[in-house]
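Supplementary Note 3. Input sequence used for the single-chain structure prediction.
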Amino acid sequence: MENDLQIIRDKISKCRLCRLCEGTTNSVPGEGSSRAEVMFIGEAPGKAEDLQGMPFVGAAGKFLAVMLKEIGMEREDVFITNIVKHRPPDNRDPLEDEVEACFPYLDAQINAIKPKLIVTLGRHAMHRFMPDLKISDVHGCDKRVKSIFSKKQIILPLYHPASALYNPSMRSTLISDMKKIPILLKKINDAS
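The predicted structure, written as discrete structure tokens, is reproduced below.
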């Protein structure tokens, strides 16, 4: 598994499939446990992530670490990545062709790790797995998705941690939704 992730990392570092690689400092393939039961998927690297080559290391990442501690987890226990692996210029939203170009890497990471639960962070990440839903309607609700995977995968959509930075009232919603992760994992493990 770890070897598979290293191969994927190497491919991402050399990727030139879309324009996102232009003008970036580092690719940001993702990091965490190759045996993670939970995979967090955000939208795209930001400035701090581009500089360090690691996902969720800016202000939103610090809040994600706080939320993980709330549920008894550390970054090292999970795998954290993004839909796209290079920072979009000026932190704009990734374009559909950029998402399409990067998706095989994300799919390979999912297949290498085989997480029991995928937690999407924000509407752009959720849209990749559940394009017809609105995050305001489904945040904190687990969904079983089959359309893009050969078997059913459980997805838990959450608001992006950055939303709490811009709107402090979202903090309690995010923490409440995050607390569903250990409960959901227990159900998944009890059922297997």
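The chain has one domain: 2-191. The longest helix spans residues 96-113.
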